[in-house]
Every structure is written in structure tokens, then in C-alpha cells.
Amino acid sequence: MLKIPTKQKEFIIDFPQNFKNIAIKMSGGTDSSMLAFMLATYKKQFRPDINLHVITMDHPLKPFQIKFAKQVMAWIETNFDFKFSSHTTGIGTASGNYADEQEVLLLKSYEQHNLDGHFMGQTLNPITHEENQTLVNRWQWRATERDAENKDKLADEYEEKIKNGMTICGHYPFLFVDKKCIAELYDYFGVKDTLFPLTRSCEQETTDFSKHCGECWWCGEREYGFGRLV
């Protein structure tokens, strides 16, 4: 059992012995990259028998997620001396529903790799955003489904699905913490200067992925949590 204490929550990772195939929905951002790191740590220290799979979908407006997910995966594989068992990728369509297309890709991975469950690194919107004028100015561009009042409904929905025996078993350990907690995890593992710079949060439309724009909501949230962009 892997236990990680933080100010906002103590994280515990421990799978039933019959769980052998676990997937991570990975975008190459700070949250999913840390989640992949935590699962790799658990595998190395406690469950070398499990297989870790990765699922990533690009979108015409976010055509960088596969690139950065692969970059983070390569770093983790080098530092943990293991290989992810698979990387299921897809390209969304401009006219389609991105969430629905991700769900199709998830189901494909469940079928192909006999998954026992999957992890997603979704976090809360900044809890103390009122103290940060940059975030106040960009608040209207946030993803409202990540507000605290909506997360309660989301958690209940997932719990209900599990109670009813749904075969898609999702785990969302960051659901009730914000980016400051994620930054604390990077500090806890000592990877803020190594893994963090390999991740990307910026969603400004661009073909230059060598830097963050520093102006979009996602850049503001990254600075809120980590105090810097890279």
C-alpha cells in the first residue's frame, strides 16, 4: 500500500490482488503525469506484477497531448526501468463531442487490454482563486464542471455506477484537491525540476509547443499551483 500525505488529502494506492491491468488517461499535463508517476512508484515498490496502460486522445484544438504524454512516459520508463504495457491513442474530430470520443477510446482500451480499472487526474478548480488576481480575471474561462459544488455530483455519479456493477471502473484520486496539492506531490517526490518541465498545461491555439502562452486559464492555474510555468 502506497501512502502519500499532503495538506489537502492523504493519497492511498492499493489494488486488489486480482487487479492486473490498470490504465491512466494521460494528457501530458501536470495532473495525469503525476498520477502516472505515483502508479509507477506503486508498481515498483508493491506490485511489479501489474501492467500499466496509457490512453491519450488528441483534439484539433489540442494537438499536443499525445506528444507530451509520450515525452512523460519516456521519462518515467527511464527512471523506473520498466515499460508501459500499451499506449492507446486517438484523434478527435472538430465536429465531434470530445468527451464522447474519449469514452469510445476508453472502451476500446478496456476491450483490448482486459482492464480492471482506469485512473484520471482531474482536479478541482483553484480553491483560493480570489487571492490571485490573475485567476480572478480569467475565472470566466475555467471548466465549470471542475468547481467544488459540481464535483460532489460527479463523485456521487461514479460511486453509483460502481455500486450498480458497471464494468468501467474509474478512479479519480485528485477529484477534491487543486493544483497546489499537485505541486506538493511534485515536491514530495522531488521531481519539480525534472518531471514538471516536461508537462504541458497551456491550451492556447498554437503550433509552437516550446513554451506556454502565460495568458490562458490553464497557464494561470499552473502558475497558481506551482508558482511558475516551467
How would the blueprint of this fold be written?
Elements: E1 2-5, E2 10-13, E3 21-25, H1 30-45, E4 51-58, H2 65-80, E5 86-91, H3 98-113, E6 117-120, H4 133-138, H5 148-163, E7 170-171, H6 179-189, H7 217-226
Structure notes:
The protein is of the alpha/beta class. The chain has one domain (19-226): HUPs (Rossmann fold, 3-Layer(aba) Sandwich). It has helices at 30-45, 65-80, 98-113, 133-138, 148-163, 179-189, 217-226; strands spanning 2-5, 10-13, 21-25, 51-58, 86-91, 117-120, 170-171. A five-stranded parallel beta sheet has the order 5-4-3-6-7, sandwiched between helices. Strands 1-2 form a two-stranded antiparallel ribbon. The longest helix has 16 residues, at 30-45. It is globular. The protein starts with a strand and ends with a helix. The mean pLDDT is 89.
Query: Can you tell me the CATH topology?
Result: Rossmann fold
Share of residues in strands: 5-15%
In N-to-C order, the SSE pattern is EEEHEHEHEHHEHH
Q: Assign an overall shape.
A: globular
| Helix coverage percent | 25-40%
Radius of gyration: 17 Å
Note poorly predicted spans.
Answer: none
CATH class: Alpha Beta
CATH architecture: 3-Layer(aba) Sandwich
- Total separate domains: 1
Determine the mean pLDDT. 89
Q: What is the strand tally?
A: 7
Lateral arrangement of strands in the main beta sheet: 5-4-3-6-7
Count the helices. How many?
A: 7
Report the biggest beta sheet as strand number plus sense, adding barrel if it closes.
5 strands, parallel
Q: In CATH, what is the homologous superfamily?
A: HUPs
**End-to-end CA span:** 31 Å
Alpha-beta classification: alpha/beta
